[in-house]
Predict the structure.
Amino acid sequence: LEYKKPGNVTIKLKNAEDFEKVMQEEEEAVKKMVMDIVKFKPDLVITEKGLSDEAQHWFVQYGVTALRRLQKSANNRVARATGATIVSRTDQIKESDVGTKCGLFEIQKIGDEYWSFFVECKNPTAVTIFLRGASKDILSEM
């Protein structure tokens, strides 16, 4: 959720008030996108693209966890497992697009990395097998 400026357009600002006006417009656009999502009362929002600081601020205000830059293939698996529909525009979200089949979302630190887990899903149609070993060579032998 980032504000998209029209492609290849240069904005010339003459003074500080013009800059403030542009910033205010961007903040309002991001807030509208977040409100389009928040009205469905989600616990978690996932995006394949970036998430602006402004959007993160509003999600925190409404108690929504947001994950950004999820790979398309992983996003498709999450949608399948949770019953969600991937949408590209926030103003087109419907109640039926919200995934409700995930019992628990949690983040765990394993080694030096953080991992997100979707567990207790109802009738899951996607799973991940997580292997740990001393080295990649040992895991490759499995």
